[in-house]
Every structure is written in C-alpha cells, then in structure tokens.
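General statements about sequence and structure are easier to judge against a single worked case. In the encoding step, the backbone of a single protein was reduced to a row of integers, each denoting a local shape. The record that follows shows the chain in one-letter code together with its fold in token form.
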Amino acid sequence: MVVKAYPLGMVRIMNNNGLNEEDEEEGDSGVEPYVGLEFDTAEEARDYYNSYATRTGFKVRTGQLYRSRTDGTVSSRRFVCSKEGFQLNSRTGCPAFIRVQRRDTGKWVLDQIQKEHNHELGGLIDETTTTTPRPSVQQRAPAPTKLAVSVPHRPKMKVVDESDKGRSCPSGVISFKRFKGAEESDETQSKAATEPHAGLEFASANEACLFYQSYSEVVGFRVRIGQLFRSKVDGSITSRRFVCSKEGFQHPSRMGCGAYMRIKRQDSGGWIVDRLNKVHNHDLEPGKKNAGMKKITEDVTGGLDSVDLIELNDFTSINHKTRENTIGKEWYPVLLDHFQSKQAEDMGFFYAVELDSNGACMSVFWADSRSRFACSQFGDAVVFDTSYRQQDYSVPFATFIGFNHHRQPVLLGGALVADESREAFSWLFQTWLRAMSGRRPRSFIADEDLPIKEAVAQVFPGTHHRFSAWQIRSKERENLRTFPNEFKYEYEKCLYQTQTTVEFDTMWSALVNKYGLRDNLWLREVYEKRVNWVPAYLRASFFGGIPVNGTYQPFYRDSLSSLTSLREFVSMYEHGLEQRREEERKEDSNSYNLQPFLQTKEPVEEQCRRLYTLTVFRVFQGELAQSYNYLGLKTYEEGAISRFLVRKCGNESEKHAVTFSASNLNASCSCQMFEYEGLLCRHILKVFNLLDIRELPSRYILHRWTKNAEFGFVRDVESGVTSQELKALMIWSLREAASKYIEFGTSSLEKYKLAYEIMREGGKKLCWQR
C-alpha cells in the first residue's frame, strides 16, 4: 500500500523547520497519521483522526470492526472518510481510512492507512464557527473513481478497472458503484427513491434486486437473494424472494429476521411485488453498505439462474471460486498436538484433516476407539448436529450422534467444519464412513441446506435423510405467521394425527383446498419434500427412538458455547465426553443391579425385563399396560394370514390395523412403531394376547436395546448386513472385549496374570500359531 505524506487535493504550507504552522500550535495533536502510531484506546484513535480530519478538510465515520475468533473481543477498527461508500448521493466511494489494531499489551496501533481522497477537500472544518484565516490552498481536480461496475437494464456484469499504476484499494476490497446511464429512464430513477410496496412493478428480476439493495442501504440492513420457485410446466422461474441478511439461523450472525420482498412474474414478462414484510427483529444501521454488488446472473437459456449470486470482493473471485475457512489457523497445531497425544494412549483413535487445492488445512474430523465401537452398535440412526449454525458459536464444531441402549446420546465423532460447501460436507461424511468401517446408517438427521442434502445423497445412498426439527420449526414460524389460527390448528392435526401416508396426502389436499392455498409456493415446496420431515413418511424408517417431533438433547448441552475459547475447547470437550460416558456407566449398573416391578402377570413382561435395559423396558411396559385399554376384532382370515382391527375403548376414532402371519409369527401394525423405534406397539401386543402368544419371537427383541448391547456380541448374521459390515462388527466387538482385558488386567500384577492366562487359554482354542 502506498502512503503519501499529504491528503489529495491540498498543498500543505511549511515553515522553515519543515512543520506546518498549525502543527506548531497544536503539538502532538497535529501529528500526521503514520503506520506504527500508538494509542491507549480505540476511542483515542478515533478522536485523533477526527482532529486530523478537521484540520485537513473532511469528516469521519466509524467503519467496520473485527472480532477475535478465540474470545470475541474487538481486535481492530476502521475509521473512514464520510464519503466512503455509495449509499447516499453525497458519497463518492472515497478510499481514505485508518485502521487500528489491538496489541497484546492493550495498546492500539495504527497498522493500515490510506490518505488519498477522491474528492475535493474543504479545508479546515471549523466546528466552533470561528473565522480564523487559513493558509492559502491550491485546489486540484478530484481523483478519478478507482473502479466502477456498469449496471444497465440487461443483467450483464461488467467490471471496469481504472486504477492507475496498479495501486490497490484499502484492505484488498474493491469498491463498486452503479452509475445511472443515459439509457435508464426517469421512471427507474424515481423508483429507487420510493419504498417497496405491494404492486410495485419491474421490467426484470435484476432490476427488482438492485432496487431492494438500494432501499436496504438507506434503511440500514443488508440483502441476500432467497428462495426461488419454478413452474412445474416448463421449469421457468415464477417468483423470487429477497431477504434480510439476518434471515434464518444457518450462520452465527443470523437471528431469524422476517423482513423480505417477494416478486412474482407476470404473463407480460414483467415482475410485480406481491408479498412484503418491512419489520426487522434487530437494530438497523442507516447507510449500511452491502458487501459488494450482488447481481443475479443470466443462464445460457436467457432465464434467471436459480441461486447464482456474484459477490465481487477482489479480482480472484471473478475468475474462480475460492473456499473460505472459518477455523482460525491457531486451532490446527493445538488440535493436532492433542490428537497425537490421544493416539499414543488409544490405538483406535482416528483423525483426519481436509486439504484444499493449495494444500492448506480445512475441515478436521476425529473419533476415539470408544466412539468407533459405539458406531458399530448404535450407528443405525445418526444425527449430524450442527448447533453452531443456529447459535453464535465462535467455532464451527459439529458432532455425529447416535443413541445407545439406554436411549442416551453417544458421540460417534467430532468435527470442525471449515466452510458450508458441498465439498466440505462430502469430505466429512466420507471420512466419518471410513473411520466407522464403511457401515452406512439406516437413517440420518441433518439440516436441509442444499450442500448437506447433496453430500448425504452422494455418500449415504439409500439412507433416509430426515431434516432437522429446528429448521422446520423456523420456517413454519416465518411462513405461518400470516395464516389464521384455524388453519394452524388443522395444519398441526394433519401432521401429527395422520397415521399413514395416504391419510396424510388426503388430509393435506383437503386442507389447502379448503383455504384456497393450492398456489401457495411455500406449502407446495414443503409438500414436495414431505418424505424428509412429515411423521407419516418417517415412521417406515428406523430412527432409534428419536421422537416424531424431532427434538433431542445435544450431546454437549451447555458445556460448549459461543464463549468457549481455543484454550478451553479441548479440555471442555474431553470433560463433556467423560461426563456422558459416566452417565452411561451408571445406567449400565442400574440395568444389571435393579429390578423394576412387574405390572402384569404376562410372561412377555418377565421376558423383556430380563433382556431389556431399564429405560427401554419402561417404554415396553407402558405399551403392554396400554394394550389392556384396547379391543381387538378379527376382520379377515385367509390361510395363515389374519387381519385385526384394534381400537381404543371409548374412542372410536383411534383404531389401527394389525396383520398377522401364523406361519412365521410375523406381525405388522399401521402405526409402524416397531419399524420406527424397534419396540412392539400396544396394538400388536393386544393381538398377541388374543392369540395366546406367551413370549415375543426373537426378531422383535433388537439386540441394540438389550443389556448386552454394550459388549457388542455378534450372535447371528442379521438380514441385510453385508460381509464387510459383519467383519466390522466382529472387529469392534473383539477390540472392545480386548480393551476391557487390558483396562482391568493392568490394574495390578495379580489381575494381569489372570487376564494373561485367560487370553492364553483362549488362544489355544483358536489354534494360535507361535
């Protein structure tokens, strides 16, 4: 960066000592800004720059601030010329600024500066309105604008570089200004001065986008290009949403703001504002500049592309895409040092680091042997927990979570996600799969964002991807707020009281027709994705007992938060993990040492008390007790196949169909509880009682719910398990058993001798060769 001695547009008059006469009078306050100048506080730096600006002939605004990724404190500040940016007509995109950075000593040091202005300076700005005579000033012509973006009506992007001698812009950020060409009509220019309102028309979606950006800069917020909707007939775009940058919760800076403008394409080819919300749930900053000119690009067909958004910050972003990294560089050496220490203690510890095309570190994944073994037992239903996206976390920490035989969350791996791209998530899921011996989950709960959806489809084909409940609830709150309460009640009833997919589809169709919402774009979109979130469509897949509403307790609860620093992360991660595992050990002990009371004299209750863990047995016991409140009626019989109608006493509307095969004692119910949770429902238990079936067939006692599940003993080859998956199960079962021999056998010399003798005798039976 070139730093000149004097501001552009002013010639300083020196005395014989080389000092300005003003500087002689004002002492230190008249010192020219230079790199290395120190201040006690950021406010002192601002006051100094204000004083300098007053003497030089411009005004100051407080610009951006930057926070530390470790503790969230302000690490640097920018103070800029009042004509920086283009949000108001009076601004010219002036690049003049200073930046001060906080050092470890607590001092603030000026580390970047740009003294050149691109406008005429007004001489001394005398705030006391005194008329002190000033030295003569020789005015120069204003400097040319460094860079401009031409934005005519047709949405083509043109970047014009007029910077002389290759001089760079401050902070590496190129400023953009939209010039009103002669071809722009007075009508278009007057539009920019108006507020958005329903019925406002535009010639193109791009014109609407630029209008909303101009409006946002005056009001004080930033804009993102939101959802689009396409025609089912020809695939063309029928409507678009432009939203506040703080809409949603996918990033720590977002807070679910509901402000947006939606435009709809008309038959004439134009666009009209048909829905609008101007209310924000956060403070506004009038004059806030959008980060680079955002523009919808044209695709090869001449239509507007779905989500293409160009945000120009430097020349490299124009030519090729570069991936950001939200993980601070200081994290890598600390984590790798910790991983190597863990690997020395735990031979099954696994970790991997993603590298980008330039060889730089990106995402990180790790899992200890206990997590890898847990996945062999409880990796059938997995939650990819990205709570950091909905809260203000300083570190992008994600976890893979399973649910054990006590229905407690168990850690199946941890990760730091460098960026939210498809490449990052694909690498992360593939790495997790490799660490877990290639055994894919039957169901996978994760956010519905496009990069995650694509990565899940790529890495886990055949796995049922269920959307995270917090995202579903967030979008419901946003889109249902304008609907009448009667509709909301029937909407909830349609979701949670329908038992089959046919019943849901029928009730949904009746609901949208009743309220005339057949063309509602949001309802159409969520209906098309119903297999990923509607309970009736989820029940056919195994989700390990996760409630139908999708709520579950995060593994780390409140132990890791937005205030967790690098120094605390590793120790709090290990502490939280040990806490969870101690809770699991307590439940193991309770299951073996405590006997729950029986509520009936049924042999099946005694059978399940003997096999199930305490937590799972209580769930089964509740279903068994409820089965006495139901009546069963055989409605069909042909050969070995029978069908029963099971309904609740006193409630004719609650009824379920149970199909039973006498040849193999196979039963299925319309409620699909066994398919979803792996436990028999009250309806099948009622039919078993009618048929005098005294014990449950072995297929209905899932090993994952039993007391012995933690030992991972592989009894038989389960249906659908490949030879690779079976080998992985056997490896982790034997490895876990061996680790227990090591753990207890090394506690004393006597126990070591006993453990060694047991293993030696076992080796003889396996015919080990010396």
